[in-house]
Amino acid sequence: MHNKASEEDKVLTFVGASWSAGGLKSDLKGQAGKWAVAPMPTWEAGDGKSSFNGGSATSVMTGCRTPHQAAQFAAFLSGDPQAVKTGIDAGLYPASKAGQDDPSLTEGDPFFGGQKVGDLYKASAAQVPTTWTNGPTYQQVETDFTGAIGSGSYPDAVTKVQASTVAAIKQLGLSVTNG
Questions:
Q1: N or C: which terminus of the chain has fewer CB atoms within 10 Å of its end residue's CB?
Q2: Dist CA 161 CA 100 (whole Å)
Q3: Residues 75 and 103 occupy one common structural domain
């Protein structure tokens, strides 16, 4: 996420998820107080939308010898106040609504110049659509784009990924309309 340009104060902005704050703080310690968090810009005032980027899940695998205990531990990780607090201290924003009400999230963050970033994260979390958002070829798009952007220009990557995505959608038996 961060590179020499970031370390030399040559990066003005970047788009990232709430968990990006942890990386900023650990990678760019010398820039404490120079960064701020802002919501995504919108065309119309009050028309804000948000999305998720990454995330994690805790699950119990088939074949687990102690599935009941494993499920209890998974519930503990997501719901126990101290477990949630440990995640917050590591730079994670809690998925649970109870975790989002943790008082530490409403305190000013010194790295962000005293800004109360938890308030922004909470407002953004409320704007995440609750409907299904990824298409049936999402994993293919992500994989192909990562490969294409690493070996060419952005426009070339988009062109390559559009072609591979159209082929993948057709392979699923779905129709594709350009435009």
A1: C
A2: 37
A3: yes
